[in-house]
Every structure is written in structure tokens, then in C-alpha cells.
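User: Fold this; C-alpha cells only.

Assistant: Input:
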Amino acid sequence: MLHRYWGRAVAVAAFMCAPLLAGDYDHLFDVVKEIWPDRTVAMAICDKDANQFALIDLADTAKARNISLIIVDLRDEKDYNRTILTAMGRNPGFFLIIDEDPLLGSKGHLTSRMVYRVSGRDIPVVGISAEVLKHGAVLAVGSGAKDPIYVNKTAAAHIKIALPPDGVEPKAK
């Protein structure tokens, strides 16, 4: 009898936790709109099933800032080459790293390869944690409005893109 209610309990818990995840990308999109107003198409490549709540927040935030969001599903490493070619064919203004994604997140093992390929086409890569800068991303902005804006000046110079004047490079650990 109890097993019938587990599904409902999990759904209610997930629904109740959704507001806790809200707002992660607000500050990032504000900064992107300010420094690159002509880049209005964002691309996120991730496992849609593993990032459902982040994608809901991301879609709402992008829509509120008039940024078109393209989400490409990548669940298996063997589909990486085909997926990245398809994604770059859509001509995004910038790529967004979903922080917790297992393959292309801040700790994903394919992230550096993706950033390298995307940077070759002069497309900036951004994220919400400074960890993404280690992979070659150009910009990392925390979720709070007072969080620092971290930049990778070397990567920005490589693709010839402007950086915010108040951006700082993270200290090496």
C-alpha cells in the first residue's frame, strides 16, 4: 500500500524544491545581455533527463530576457561528435555549460573538448561556476547579483570578444 504513494511523494518533494533552484541563471543572462547584446541565441548541450529542473529555470530565465534557448540532448559519449556538429550548425551566439551535467558540466570529461571545438568558431562559452574557466570558458557568473564575474582573458583574446570591465580572473589554487 505504501509503495503507491512513493511516486507522489517524490513528485511533491521535487515540486517543493524547484523554488530553491530558481534564479541560478538570472545574473548570468543579465551579464551576457549587457556585454554581448547581439548574441541572442544560447545553446545548452546536456542530458535532459539529468537536468530537468535546471532546464526549466533556464528556459524561463532566457525567455524573460529575450534570449532564444536551444537545448540539445546528449546522453551518451558515443553521440558526442554528431551532437556537437549539429549544435554548431544552428549558429548559436554563445554556449552555456549546465554545471551539474555528467558529460558536459563543470566536472564533465568532455567539457574541455567541447569548449575547444566551439572556440574554434569564435563562439564564447559561459557558465555559473568558476570551475568552467579551467576548461577554457570565457565567462563565469555566480547566481547572486553581488557574486563576482569571473573571466578568462586568454580565451576571450583568442576569440576576440569583449569582457565586462568589472570581471576578475579567479586566483589559481
